[in-house]
């Protein structure tokens, strides 16, 4: 029987949770009475570098006024590492980056042991207002573990810039001058002083004031707008030259001020110079090309419009002339009446072969037959052909239309009488039987229905034509 035993772990050991275990082992026999012995074992857990250092805050903010001295403390970052020994030995640094094209190390410096961050230079609020840097902490374990944190350095504005006067412009050689008429009444606008301050906040709020004036009761300047106006009308004894010294100050602490000198000339009559002709011609060369382009564009548009309208008018005239000469319906004119008296449109059905089609022909009408108005091109002798009338087949004619077909046969035989008949052949309408022919018959049916509504004897002839077409296509007539 083995007298050796082993003590093994039953789970994961974490030194950061429990660094030492006290274990009591008891050995007992199986005798009666049982005898036993105990031993106490202290188990210490050694550390490994399994935890990275962690900063105490997620973000660090630092505030510093501009124009600070170099080496001033900005802020301090701090981190902790739950490991021990060399694994908990921390080293601070600044991650390499660039600010406005310069390395971050030229702006700030960090103490590697304490984590204190110092300014390397004097900051200017007008150049940049916020510096964003990244602080880094690293332990000395193996392998080394590290963490990063963002640090924002906010530059605070100070009143270090005096107001800048934009108008009136003063130089060392010249002094701004304004001219007013002697007839100016109270409230007359003499000039307006404009100034800016590159600082921000209260440091950029400006106030205008009149520091020096030969006649203090004559002029006044608005405190906020900088408008210089007269307080009263001008008198004869008032000097023709008034010297004004205007001050512009900000609200900073301490306040900074800028001044400007303005000379006001009082004249009895102010003649406004009228612009001379050559003044208007100074920029003619620069605008001549644009004017030329505009003229060319207008002319081109006009020409295109004219040509378009002309073409439309010509086409309309040609169409009207064509309709009047070849496409118009026969009207009660001498020539048209004669043609109508001689011919009438007749529908013929050709059933030869597998392709069936219909033809509309101009056939002479009998003296007892009425005349129908139709539209056809002008006829000439060359357009006439001699052909026998086409006999209508009785195969496809319904029994209900037999009487109508007999009437139609009599009409055809009346004009035949043993000799060939002169007919004018119109355009043959050939289409597949079950598709396009049906559309044509539909149109004829619509025309015939319209004609049937007229109270005259033309209905009989139309019934004949429609009856043949309907019987040939097995379509019931009207």
UniProtKB/TrEMBL annotation:
<dbReference type="InterPro" id="IPR020894">
    <property type="entry name" value="Cadherin_CS"/>
</dbReference>
<keyword id="KW-0812">Transmembrane</keyword>
<dbReference type="InterPro" id="IPR002126">
    <property type="entry name" value="Cadherin-like_dom"/>
</dbReference>
<keyword id="KW-1133">Transmembrane helix</keyword>
<dbReference type="InterPro" id="IPR032455">
    <property type="entry name" value="Cadherin_C"/>
</dbReference>
<keyword id="KW-0106">Calcium</keyword>
<feature type="domain" description="Cadherin">
    <location>
        <begin position="56"/>
        <end position="165"/>
    </location>
</feature>
<dbReference type="InterPro" id="IPR015919">
    <property type="entry name" value="Cadherin-like_sf"/>
</dbReference>
<keyword id="KW-0677">Repeat</keyword>
<feature type="domain" description="Cadherin">
    <location>
        <begin position="7"/>
        <end position="55"/>
    </location>
</feature>
<feature type="domain" description="Cadherin">
    <location>
        <begin position="172"/>
        <end position="277"/>
    </location>
</feature>
<protein>
    <recommendedName>
        <fullName>Cadherin domain-containing protein</fullName>
    </recommendedName>
</protein>
<dbReference type="Pfam" id="PF16492">
    <property type="entry name" value="Cadherin_C_2"/>
</dbReference>
<keyword id="KW-0472">Membrane</keyword>
<keyword id="KW-0325">Glycoprotein</keyword>
<dbReference type="Pfam" id="PF00028">
    <property type="entry name" value="Cadherin"/>
</dbReference>
<dbReference type="InterPro" id="IPR050174">
    <property type="entry name" value="Protocadherin/Cadherin-CA"/>
</dbReference>
<feature type="transmembrane region" description="Helical">
    <location>
        <begin position="292"/>
        <end position="314"/>
    </location>
</feature>
């Amino acid at each position: 029987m083995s007298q050796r035993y082993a003590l093994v772990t039953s789970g994961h050991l974490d030194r950061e949770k429990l660094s030492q275990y006290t274990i009591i082992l008891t050995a007992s026999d199986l005798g009666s009475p049982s005898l036993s012995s105990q031993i106490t074992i202290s188990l210490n857990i050694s550390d490994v570098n399994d935890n990275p250092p962690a900063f105490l805050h997620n973000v660090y903010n630092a505030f510093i006024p501009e124009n600070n001295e170099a080496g001033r403390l900005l802020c301090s970052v701090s981190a902790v590492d739950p490991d021990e020994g060399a694994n908990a030995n921390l080293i601070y640094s600044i991650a390499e980056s660039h600010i406005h094209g310069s390395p971050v190390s030229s702006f700030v410096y960090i103490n590697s042991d304490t984590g204190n961050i110092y300014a390397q230079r004097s900051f200017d609020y007008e150049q940049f207002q916020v510096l964003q840097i990244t602080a880094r902490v690293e332990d000395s374990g193996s392998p080394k573990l590290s963490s990063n944190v963002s640090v924002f350095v906010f530059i605070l504005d100070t009143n270090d810039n005096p107001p800048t006067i934009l108008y009136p412009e003063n130089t060392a050689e010249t002094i701004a001058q304004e001219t007013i008429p002697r007839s100016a009444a109270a409230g007359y606008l003499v000039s307006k002083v404009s100034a800016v301050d590159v600082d921000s906040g209260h440091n950029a709020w400006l106030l205008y004031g009149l520091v020096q004036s030969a006649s203090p009761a004559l002029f006044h300047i608005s405190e906020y707008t900088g408008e210089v106006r007269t307080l009263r009308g001008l008198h004869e004894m008032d000097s023709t030259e008034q010297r004004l010294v205007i001050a512009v100050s900000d609200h900073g602490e301490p306040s900074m001020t800028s001044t400007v000198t303005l000379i006001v000339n009082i004249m009895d009559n102010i003649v406004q110079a009228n612009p001379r002709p050559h003044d208007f011609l100074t920029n003619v060369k620069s605008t001549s090309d644009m004017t030329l382009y505009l003229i060319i564009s207008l002319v081109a548009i006009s020409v295109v419009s004219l040509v378009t309208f002309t073409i439309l008018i010509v086409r309309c005239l040609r169409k009207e002339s064509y309709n009047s000469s070849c496409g118009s319906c026969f009207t009660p004119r001498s020539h048209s009446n004669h043609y109508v008296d001689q011919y009438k449109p007749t529908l013929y059905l050709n059933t030869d072969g597998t392709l069936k089609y219909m033809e509309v022909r101009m056939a002479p009408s009998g003296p007892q037959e009425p005349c129908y108005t139709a539209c056809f091109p002008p006829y000439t002798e060359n357009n006439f052909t001699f052909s026998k009338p086409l006999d209508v087949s009785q195969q496809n004619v319904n029994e209900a239309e037999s009487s109508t077909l007999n009437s139609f046969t009599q009409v055809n035989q009346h004009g035949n009488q043993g000799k060939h008949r002169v007919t004018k052949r119109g355009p043959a309408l050939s289409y597949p039987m079950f598709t396009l022919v049906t559309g044509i018959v539909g149109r004829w049916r619509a025309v015939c229905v319209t004609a049937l509504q007229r109270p005259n004897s033309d209905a009989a002839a139309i019934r004949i034509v429609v009856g043949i077409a309907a019987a040939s296509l097995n379509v019931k007539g009207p």
